[in-house]
Amino acid sequence: MPTSKTELIFSVPFFCENIYSEEQHVTYLIICPLVFLAGFVDAVAGGGGLISLPAYMLAGLPVHNAIATNKMSSTMGTSIATYQYAKSGYIPWKLVGFCIAAAFAGSTCGANLALIVDDYYFKILMLIILPLTAFYVTRPRSFADDKIPYSQTRTTVYSMFIALGVGVYDGFYGPGTGTFLILFLTALAHMDLKKANGTTKAVNLTTNISALVIFLLHAKVVLPLGIIAGAFNIAGNYIGTKFFDRGGAKSVKMLTIVVIAIFFVKILLEVLS
User: Fold this and answer.
1) Does the keyword DNA repair apply (predicted)?
2) Four-residue CA torsion sign, 82, 91, 251, 263
3) Rounded mean pLDDT of 132-147?
4) Longest distance between any two alpha carbons in the chain, whole Å
């Protein structure tokens, strides 16, 4: 008989009536609203994983199962956001293919780097970078669409290097990858905000799917929870894409600052613990 919340989640179907059903409902009540919020934030400014992954861990899932199940729900939500942005014409497909290839290469390098370098030093570096990033975001024209666009070739090259660099970060550590992609694509590649967000979603979806396949093959995903939480993440992403259409740079700036603040506190607590 299951004796803990963890055993309960894995051994009892969600719809099975038994004495543990009330505790199981609490697990869903913790995760689903936060995953919805994460989907909304992720669709607008990236970084939804900073909200959703802690939600799974708060509910009592072991870390590997939390990461895997979070990957499933976020993949479902990102699929909807990517479709909506593609439908709105925000994804430059010719450029996106190069970015995806670069992000995969960077992620592979980052994962290998993580095996030989203590992430403590990386976290210290992030504690310096994040306040500087927040300062940039608060500037009046940080996400302005009036930057002089580069040629298609130059934009593609810059975007590939950005995807490669952020891919290294994603493979090494990961949280906030979408936020950094949006920031760098607008600031360095002079991509307009809508195309930067669309490109980010397409890259994120591809890397999420590849990671999810690995987790599924190793049976790390809690399927009932992942599917139901994924439905909430889909709803959050859908509403987030509509909000982005109406809010533009103003809404992205506000939510980006919130994501950076959450990320900064998260890393600081990890360094001090």
Assistant:
1) no
2) positive
3) 72
4) 65
